[in-house]
Design goal:
Helix content: 25-40%
CATH superfamily of the largest domain: P-loop containing nucleotide triphosphate hydrolases
Number of strands: 10
Structural class: alpha/beta
Oligomer: single chain
CATH architecture of the largest domain: 3-Layer(aba) Sandwich
Number of helices: 11
Strand order of the largest sheet: 6-7-8-3-9-10
CATH class of the largest domain: Alpha Beta
Number of domains: 2
CATH topology of the largest domain: Rossmann fold
Distance between the termini: 20 Å
Radius of gyration: 19 Å
Length: 257
């Protein structure tokens, strides 16, 4: 549940009438979304509800057919993906290109280089690279990878690899972090670990995530927006949304755990 300060805070991200049509098929229809600072905001819905299309619109990998997107009160509807990322709206896969044969430390260091405007400058002096290591170590510890610093990414278990992706995303110090199904394909232990990580990350920044695991959503989200057939079906905290008859009908026959 949101405290009063968060409820009254100016929106960090908001959309009005966001719509995306593909050759007559409306994937996202008139979606108005308000993400307030300091919240973990979940976007959920049955398969085909338009969640990923919505994410692609917010990060400008798709151009809206109609509607507007604002970040910190500024219209970013016409921005390019790189411009949106520079503003502080970062989707994990945008910059978490994990290099499989680089170690955890090296991957995070590459992401930190990008923040300095030289993401693929591998020829920097050893001293300059060493300067990045304290922050790289901090990020590795923040996501629970302090014992894997010198492990090549390709050798990491799946859940740890997703943690590395989040670390490389955090290296850009985003103001709004977008996570697309962060626990997909994980076993229970990894799900719990990543959920706890997202909750820790959400203590110091704003998170918008698409997530199918409703247990994760219930445990860590402040606000939930439910999409169905491209439209907003309901919004509120988990207690309110889970009792909504339209939501229950939309999820009929799907897993509730």
């Amino acid at each position: 549940m949101l405290d009063s300060a968060r409820q009254t805070a100016e929106p960090l991200l908001e959309t009005h009438g966001l719509t995306k049509e593909f050759r007559g098929f409306v994937a996202v229809k008139n979606v108005s979304l308000t993400v307030r600072p300091g919240t973990i905001h979940a976007l959920i819905g049955p398969n085909g509800a338009g969640k990923t299309t919505c994410f692609n619109l917010l990060t400008k990998f798709l151009t809206p057919s109609a509607g507007t997107i604002k970040f910190k009160g500024q219209n970013i509807t016409s921005d390019r993906p790189a411009d949106v990322a520079r503003r502080g709206v970062v989707r994990s896969f945008q910059i978490s290109a994990v290099f499989p044969h680089l170690t955890v430390l090296e991957n995070i260091r590459v992401a930190l280089q990008r923040k300095r405007g030289s993401s693929f400058d591998f020829w920097r002096s050893e001293r300059a690279l060493k300067d990045l290591e304290p922050r790289a170590n901090e990020l590795a510890e923040a996501v629970g990878l302090q014992d894997f610093l010198h492990t090549p990414a390709v050798e990491l278990p799946y859940g740890r690899k997703r943690a590395l992706e989040i670390a490389t995303t955090l290296a850009l110090d985003p103001e709004l972090l977008l996570l697309d199904e962060p626990t997909a394909g994980m076993g229970h232990e990894d799900v719990d670990r990543i959920a706890a990580l997202i909750k820790r990350v959400g203590a110091s920044r704003t998170v918008l995530m698409v997530e199918h695991n409703l247990k994760v959503v219930a445990n860590i989200s402040h606000i939930i927006t439910v999409l169905a057939r491209g439209e907003v079906l309901a919004e509120g905290d988990y207690a309110a949304v889970s009792k909504n008859k339209d939501v229950m009908q939309a999820y009929m026959g799907t897993e509730h755990a």
